[in-house]
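debug: dumping io for the single-chain case to check the tokenizer round-trip. Nothing else runs in this session.
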Amino acid sequence: MTYTLQAVENSDEKTDLVKRFWTGALIVIVAAVLGGLLAWNEQHPMAVALAILVGGAGVLGVDIAVAYRSAVRRSKA
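debug: decoded output
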């Protein structure tokens, strides 16, 4: 199975996947910044922001992978 958007034939589904990625990335970045600001009085506020960023990126990666897989299955059916 190829891991590019070429496997998704419908352009609306491609657009939805790209929008989903950028929206998720924006949410993760904002959450990391806010988490770092809220933890500013802690000993390591940047570590808190980095942990939120890495965790959010992992969740976003899984979300995009599942959405991509279902889009590929829909395009093959």
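debug: round-trip ok. The two ends are 15 Å apart (CA to CA).
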